[in-house]
Write a structure and sequence with these properties.
Rossmann fold, 14 helices, alpha/beta, TIM Barrel
């Protein structure tokens, strides 16, 4: 996996600081003392802080920024800091004459105010009662509130970024919800097709903004009832063409949320999509998974469940199961993607088992499209250790 300079900034007990003003530096140290003496890790530049914020591995828990910085790096850093799903509590210390950045906490250079803002942590927004029911989701779909974050996937042989998974998010002014909070509800309430379309259009339109878009494949989850719809290849083709991409840029991930009861119907759907140029991955194959027999169908590849992958370094059964799945998949020319690659031990185990691609926080966290160039720079700068 990746060996980077020691990332003390990612420890929960530390504060990452980007500042040159002595007052801001002194204020941050004083705030840290108020927070049970948490150590302050000062980085030399906004570029280094950006790498910490969006690069491989776990991001910092707290980040203090000096207000008033300008330039492309500062703009990219502020953009990444605004992500409501980053997991990093970001606070800007204001300076005289500065225009406060929108979407971030801003406090004056006062230790107590800064300590209070940092202690508040990251907002874990949610909705209650009818506010997060099917009617609210349907309204959110109409208003365009479904957004995506992109998680990078790399080729294990040469570490080359080759793919992005688009993960659904529901964002509205009063709440920001991850997929687990609303995707099951969408499937249960008949909104799965609308949600799939919203994710596809949003992800394709944003991917098209990347200069390297045509060299990357994009994947996103599709539940079985949507995958089986005869009209799916047609509207997917239109969406891909509208984004200036090709069907071969797109992979669908068949989720495990609905059991496959008619293998022949699924086989016809996979062939129908393949004729239109779209591949399909069998998602989240786990230990003792009853869906292993589906590998005989014309899937493009399989994604291994993160729990299975994370267990490999210390669990013989997990390693044996992955080798078995890899053997079955490779015999039929299918890709194997290891999810949950978080550290060098997991990377080496997945590589030794023959996995083709790797995904997980050790490669990259789910990021907004604007942060992907910075992630790519951080990934290229990292060194690989597989020994």
């Amino acid at each position: 996996m990746v060996r980077r300079p020691r990332r003390t900034a990612s420890d929960p007990s530390t504060l990452l600081l980007v500042a040159r003003d002595p007052l801001v530096i002194a204020t941050t140290h004083a705030a840290a003392r108020r927070m049970n003496g948490r150590p302050v890790v000062q980085v030399a530049s906004g570029a280094e802080a950006l790498s910490q914020l969006v690069g491989p591995g776990f991001g910092p828990r707290h980040l203090v920024l000096e207000g008033g910085a300008t330039g492309s790096i500062a703009s990219a850093l502020l953009s990444a800091a605004r992500d409501r799903f980053s997991g990093t509590a970001v606070v800007v210390v204001s300076q005289p004459g500065m225009a406060p950045p929108q979407g971030l906490r801003v406090v004056p250079a006062e230790p107590k105010r800064l300590a209070d803002a940092l202690s508040a942590g990251v907002r874990h927004d949610g909705l209650n009662g009818s506010e997060n029911g099917p009617a609210a989701l349907a309204a959110g779909l109409r208003r365009g509130e479904i957004t995506v974050r992109f998680q990078p996937i790399v080729r294990m042989l040469d570490r080359q970024p080759v793919m992005l998974e688009a993960l659904a998010r529901w964002e509205r002014p009063e709440a920001a919800l991850g997929a687990g909070a609303f995707v099951p509800m969408a499937e249960e309430s008949g909104l799965a097709a609308q949600l799939t379309a919203a994710v596809a259009h949003r992800a394709l339109s944003e991917l098209a903004l990347l200069p390297s878009a045509r060299n990357l494949r994009l994947s996103f989850n599709v539940p079985l009832p949507v995958l089986l719809r005869p009209g799916l290849p047609s509207w997917l083709s239109a969406a891909v063409a509208a984004a200036g991409l090709r069907p071969t840029n797109l992979l669908l991930e068949l989720t495990e949320s609905t059991a496959v009861r008619d293998i022949d119907t699924l086989r016809r759907a996979l062939r129908r999509l393949a004729r239109a140029g779209f591949g399909v991955l069998l998602d989240d194959l786990a230990l003792d998974d009853g869906r292993r027999h589906l590998l005989g169908l014309p899937f493009t590849g399989v994604k291994l469940d993160r729990g299975l992958v994370v267990a490999m370094p210390h669990d013989y059964r997990a390693r044996a199961e992955v080798r078995r799945i890899v053997g079955l998949a490779h015999a039929k020319g299918k890709l194997v993607i290891a999810e949950g690659v978080t550290d060098p031990h997991v990377w080496r185990a997945a590589s030794a088992a023959g996995c083709d691609l790797a995904q997980g926080f050790g490669v990259g966290r789910p990021l907004p499209i604007s942060s992907l160039p910075a992630w790519m720079a951080a990934w290229r700068a990292a060194s690989l250790s597989i020994g």
